[in-house]
Automatic annotation (TrEMBL), chains A, B:
Protein name according to UniProt: TetR/AcrR family transcriptional regulator
Species of provenance: Lentzea indica
UniProt entry tagged with the keyword DNA-binding: yes
SUPFAM superfamilies in the record: Homeodomain-like, Tetracyclin repressor-like, C-terminal domain
DNA-binding interval(s): 30-49
Every HTH tetR-type domain range: 7-67
Domain of life: Bacteria
Assigned keywords, A-Z: DNA-binding, Transcription, Transcription regulation
Length: 198, 198
DNA sequence: CCTGCAATCTTGTCGGTGACAAGTCAGGGG
DNA sequence: CCCCTGACTTGTCACCGACAAGATTGCAGG
C-alpha cells in the first residue's frame, strides 16, 4: 500500500490537472478526479490548495512563470519582435492547459500574490520586447504595446479554440501574421485610400 | 399562482443565463439556478435545451447572430475596416456574456447546425470587411484576414479578462490600436531596421 | 362538444462534486 | 520520550446535471 504521506502531492496534483485539462478542457476537471488519479483520498488536495479556485490559481501562476521564462529566453536570442510574438503563440499551443486557465479570472483567486507577481513578470517580458519596436515612431508606446499583445493573444486564442484552419502549422502561420504587421521585409497591411474614412 | 405553461420559457431562460453569466462568469451558472430565477421547476429548461451544453450552444449561436448583425450594420455605414474592428470590440464588451460563451468549444455541442450557421455568417461578415483592405497589396488575403481577426479578438479578450488598463474607454482605445495598424492617416507600427532580423 | 394526443412542465431520484469538520498518522524539536 | 504540527483520511451536507415517470394544458380532428 502507498505511504500515508505522498511526498510531493502538490506537484503531482498540478501535473494531473494539466493532463485532465488537456483532455477535457478546464470545465471538465474535478478535485476528486485528480485525487483519484494521484491515488489519494478525495480531500487530499484541499490541504495544498484550499480550494478548486486555489488549484487553478496555482496553475495559472505556474503558467505565467513559464511564459515569462519562454519570452525572456527568446528575447536574449533574437531581439526580433516577430520572434517574440511567435514565442507567445508557441507557448499557448504547447502549454495549452496552462494557457486556457491563465486568462480566466472567474476561475481564480484574483488577489493571490504569487499569481499577480508571475503575471507582472510575463507582462514585463512582453513590454520589454515592445521597446525594441519603432523608436523612430511616436504613435504612443502604450498603444503599441496593447496592439502587440492583442495580436499574439488573439491569434493564440483563436487557434486554441479551433477557429483557424486546423491544417496549418500554427507557428508558421503566426510568423507570417506577425511579419505582415511588424516585419520589415514584408509589405504592411493597409487600407486602400478610397475606402478609408477615419 | 403562475400558469402551468410559462409561455416563452426558452427566451426567459436564455435571458436569465445572460444575467447569470454577466454576474458570475460562465462557470458559475447552473440550470437549476436559472430555473429558479425564471420561476419554474428544476427540470423545466431541460425540455428546451436538452442539456446544459445545449443551453450554452443556443446562447453562443444567438451571440454569433448578434455579432453578424452588428458587423453587417457598420459595414453598410462606413466601409472603414477600422470601424469594423471597433464594432467587433464593442460587441464583445457590450454583450460580454454571449462573447464569453461563443469561443468555448468545450462548453458546446460543436456539431449543432444553428451554431455553425450563425458562426459562418459572422465569419463572412468579418471576411467581407477584410476585402475592403489593401487591394493594391498581395500579402495574401488569408493571412490578412487572420491578422485582422486576431487583433480585434485579442483586444476584446484581453479587455474582458481585465488585462488592459481599466480606466480607459475600450472603444476609444480599440480605435487607436486599429488605426495604428490598419489606418491611413496614422503612422504604421514597424520594427526599427537595426533590430529586425526576420 | 369532446376526445385523444403531443408539447410543456413537475416530481422524484441517482451518482458525482465542492466544501467543511473531525479524526488519524508521521516525524522532528523539546 | 512526548507532543505538536503538518499531511492525509473519513464522513457528511447541500448542490448540481441527467434521467424517468407523471401531471397539466392546449389543440386538432371527429
Amino acid at each position: 500500500m502507498p505511504p500515508y504521506h505522498h511526498g510531493d502531492l502538490r506537484r503531482a496534483v498540478l501535473a494531473a490537472a494539466v493532463d485532465a485539462i488537456t483532455e477535457h478542457g478546464p470545465a471538465g476537471v474535478s478535485l476528486r478526479d485528480l485525487a483519484r488519479r494521484v491515488g489519494v483520498s478525495h480531500a487530499g488536495p484541499v490541504h495544498h490548495f484550499k480550494d478548486k479556485a486555489g488549484l487553478l490559481t496555482a496553475l495559472a501562476a505556474e503558467g505565467f512563470a513559464l511564459l515569462a521564462d519562454a519570452l525572456n529566453a527568446t528575447r536574449e536570442q533574437t531581439n526580433s519582435f516577430v520572434e517574440l510574438g511567435v514565442a507567445y503563440v508557441r507557448f499557448a499551443v504547447r502549454h495549452r492547459a496552462h494557457f486556457e486557465v491563465m486568462f480566466r479570472p472567474d476561475l481564480h483567486h484574483t488577489d493571490d500574490p504569487a499569481l499577480t507577481e508571475a503575471r507582472e513578470r510575463a507582462g514585463a517580458a512582453l513590454a520589454g520586447g515592445v521597446e525594441a519596436l519603432g523608436e523612430q515612431r511616436t504613435g504612443d508606446r502604450r498603444t503599441a504595446g496593447v496592439a502587440a499583445w492583442s495580436i499574439v493573444h488573439g491569434f493564440a486564442t483563436l487557434w486554441n479554440t479551433g477557429n483557424l484552419a486546423p491544417g496549418d502549422d500554427p507557428e508558421e502561420l503566426a510568423h507570417r501574421v506577425a511579419a505582415m504587421l511588424f516585419g520589415d521585409d514584408q509589405p504592411v497591411l493597409r487600407a486602400s485610400p478610397e475606402l478609408q474614412q477615419t
